């Protein structure tokens, strides 16, 4: 049984049919990437998993338990962490308060304190900025905060929506190293990216999304050498 | 780096002392200008406006709705407080026995606040929640509708008259400071309003629910991804805002001694102005705005422009917003995407 599984998910925005039967899986310990051009439905897929958007039909299961009708705050509790597109940190709160919000559903105590330490190990920059308002940080730092905040909820699956967006190449490398590190520590990752090259570099498997439909799925190595993928997403 | 930290520190220091200094200066000026009696009058009126303004600003902050019915929730509270007082004490006037007075006040405030909090939450549940994802005009029109419904309910059951509110405080009770007489009632009104405002600020800044209210106002989706139950949080906002309007209703009754079904319109509009003046969505701003408007109104009356009070208040608002559209302390919804 897959950790997270979507079967034939359809999502609409009013009359706009954004997801037209998306099926995908994330297994325990995997990094899976979802690649597609602008408007393909990547963000909608993640928002549907998190319950921010409702699937009109299809099923979403986490550890075999169906979650497609659960409210968003319950889905967090069940083990899905989501670092949304555009970071969406709480700009007028400090880095510390943002991370505390990430642990909103957890009982304060030594375990949460230990996780603060883990996040600060992972992102030393956040430690330096601990009491600074999140809105005053650079894009890269805000991205780190958004990921750290999602991790504070101890997710089984971490959804990352374009973590490289708007970042300088060197920062992108850093963020991707950290994603790998998070995965090695035991969290499965579903990574949405337009930067296909980088994403295929760290993921185990990948899905290509086009106009709301998965048109290709394979091992990342095979995807990276697939001529169609190369032409459309790798700029070769 | 050193200069950057330096600037941050100066700004923080400035932030900490600047506002209290301005407020103290303003109060001293008003005291000199208006004389003690009018000053006290303005503070009392300001306390009422501030309590109502908090409800407008909290609801606007979290769902961007100008809750036109909020002034009427305050109006209904004045009638609920009459019902509680008369049930509790019969149609008597001042309660001269201090322990009875204290217990009566506690019961009066608690019952009215709880009833109005529930009324507010019920309005949210029935009238606004179904329209959560509708275009913004829909809940706005609904709010106007709810305002009429509340007025009509009172008009139907109580009648379109001016109704007297039982006066629990004896006018005999007063302190004297120098040559000035300070009625206990005024002290009580100002004190209880300030107390509620401090409790509210602590609740918003220190509790988990308060924090959820702030993050939901900043970014609803992101807040939801933290595990915040948005519907619950919005309902709590209505509970608290309406509860404060309940307290304002009790205070208004105790102080002015009468009420009528149209009370909510005028007071509501002024409290709403206070909320905008302070920076809509900003609770500290709403409280400040409430007092400021009361001073303008009382000041206008003191200098013989009593009939122009409303016009002066709203002209001030318009002019002020031209120069500072986000209000005194800045609107807190500014960073909404
Ligand atoms: N709030 C919305 N209202 C209407 N249509 C939307 C909305 N958000 C996204 N869409 C549409 O849904 C499709 C998928 O969008 P999205 O999931 O954001 O794509 P991606 O993340 O892959 O760029 C696009 O056609 C987009 O225009
Ligand atoms: Mg997207």
Written overview of the protein:
The complex is a heterodimer of chains A (236) and B (337). Helices cover 39% and strands 27% of the residues of chain A. Chain A is built from ten helices and ten strands. In chain A, strands 6-7-8-3-9-10 form a six-stranded mixed beta sheet, with helices on both faces. Chain A has a four-stranded antiparallel beta sheet with strand order 2-1-4-5. In chain B, strands 1-4 form a two-stranded antiparallel ribbon. In chain B, strands 2-3 form a two-stranded antiparallel ribbon. In chain B, a hairpin with a 2-residue loop joins strand 2 (174-177) and strand 3 (180-183). Chain B has a domain at 52-257. The A-B interface holds A 50-52, 71-73, 76-77, 81-82, 84, 86, 88-93, 97, 100-102, 104-105, 135, 149-150, 153 and B 208, 211-212, 214-215, 218-219, 221-230, 332, 335, 337. Residues 13, 16, 18, 36, 38-44 of chain A line the site of adenosine-5'-diphosphate (ADP).
Which key terms come to mind for this protein?
heterodimer; A: 236 residues; alpha/beta; Rossmann fold; six-stranded mixed β-sheet; 10 helices; B: 337 residues; mainly alpha; two-stranded antiparallel sheet; two-stranded antiparallel ribbon; 12 helices; globular; disordered C terminus; binds adenosine-5'-diphosphate; binds magnesium ion
Helix share bin of chain B: over 70%
How far is the first residue's CA from the last residue's CA of chain B? 31 Å
Low-confidence spans of chain B: pLDDT under 50, at least 5 residues?
1-10, 333-337
**SS-derived structural category of chain B:** mainly alpha
Mean pLDDT of chain B: 90
Number of strands of chain A: 10
Ends apart, CA distance between termini of chain A: 37 Å
- The CATH topology of chain A is Rossmann fold
The level-1 CATH class of chain A: Alpha Beta
Q: Globular, elongated, flat, extended or rod-shaped: what is the shape of chain B?
A: globular
**Main sheet specs of chain A:** 6 strands, mixed
Compute the number of strand runs of chain B: 4
Taking the sheet with the most strands of chain B, its summary is: 2 strands, antiparallel
Order of helices and strands of chain B: HHHHHEEEHHHHEHHH
């Amino acid at each position: 049984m897959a950790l997270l599984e979507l079967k034939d998910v359809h999502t609409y925005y009013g009359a706009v049919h954004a997801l037209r039967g998306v099926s995908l899986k994330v297994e325990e310990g995997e990094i899976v990437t979802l690649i597609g051009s602008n408007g393909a439905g990547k963000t909608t897929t993640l928002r549907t998993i998190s319950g921010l958007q409702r699937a009109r039909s299809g099923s979403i299961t986490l550890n075999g338990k169906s979650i497609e009708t659960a409210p968003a705050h319950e889905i967090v509790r069940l083990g899905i962490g989501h670092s949304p597109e555009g970071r969406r940190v709480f700009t007028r709160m400090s880095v510390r308060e943002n991370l505390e919000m990430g642990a909103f559903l957890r009982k304060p105590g030594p375990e949460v304190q230990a996780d603060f330490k883990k996040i600060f190990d992972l992102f030393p920059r956040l430690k330096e900025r601990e009491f600074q308002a999140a809105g005053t940080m650079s894009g890269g730092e805000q991205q780190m905060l958004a990921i750290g905040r999602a991790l504070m909820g101890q997710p089984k699956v971490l959804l990352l929506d374009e973590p490289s967006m708007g970042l300088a190449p060197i920062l992108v490398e850093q963020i991707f190293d950290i994603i790998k590190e998070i995965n090695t520590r035991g969290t499965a990752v579903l990574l949405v990216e337009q930067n296909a090259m980088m994403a295929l570099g760290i993921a185990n498997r990948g899905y290509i999304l086009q106009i709301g439909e998965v048109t290709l799925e394979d091992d990342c190595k095979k995807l990276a050498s697939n001529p169609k993928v190369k032409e459309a997403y790798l700029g070769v | 780096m050193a200069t950057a930290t330096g600037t941050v520190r100066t700004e923080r220091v400035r932030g900490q002392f600047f506002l209290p200094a301005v407020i103290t200066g303003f109060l001293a000026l008003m005291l000199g200008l208006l004389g003690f009696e009018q000053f006290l009058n303005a503070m009392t009126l300001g306390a009422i406006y501030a309590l109502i303004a908090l409800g407008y600003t909290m609801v606007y902050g979290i769902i961007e709705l100008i809750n036109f019915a909020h002034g009427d929730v305050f109006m209904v509270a004045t009638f609920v407080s009459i019902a509680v007082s008369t049930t509790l004490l019969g149609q008597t006037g001042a309660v001269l026995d201090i322990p009875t007075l204290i217990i009566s006040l506690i019961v009066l405030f608690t019952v009215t606040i709880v009833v109005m909090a529930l009324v507010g939450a019920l309005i949210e549940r029935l009238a606004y929640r179904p329209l959560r994802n509708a275009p913004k005009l829909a809940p706005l029109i609904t709010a106007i509708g709810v305002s009429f419904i509340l007025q009509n309910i009172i008009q139907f059951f109580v009648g379109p008259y001016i109704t007297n509110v039982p006066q629990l405080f004896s006018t005999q009770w007063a302190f004297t400071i120098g040559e000035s007489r300070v009625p206990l009632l005024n002290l009580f009104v100002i004190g209880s309003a300030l107390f509620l405002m401090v409790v509210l600020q602590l609740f918003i800044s220190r509790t988990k629910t308060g924090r959820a209210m702030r993050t939901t106002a900043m970014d609803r989706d992101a807040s939801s991804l933290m595990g915040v139950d948005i519907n619950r949080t919005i309902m709590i906002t209505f509970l608290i805002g309406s509860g404060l309007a309940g307290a304002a209703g009790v205070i208004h009754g105790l102080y002015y001694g009468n009420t009528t079904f149209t009370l909510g319109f005028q007071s509501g509009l002024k409290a709403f102005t206070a909320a905008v003046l302070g920076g809509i969505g900003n609770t500290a701003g709403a409280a400040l705005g409430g007092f400021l408007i009361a001073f303008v109104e009382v000041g206008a009356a003191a200098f013989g422009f009593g009939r122009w009070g409303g016009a002066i208040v709203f002209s001030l608002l318009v002019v002020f917003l031209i120069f500072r559209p986000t209000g005194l302390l800045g609107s807190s919804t500014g960073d909404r995407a």
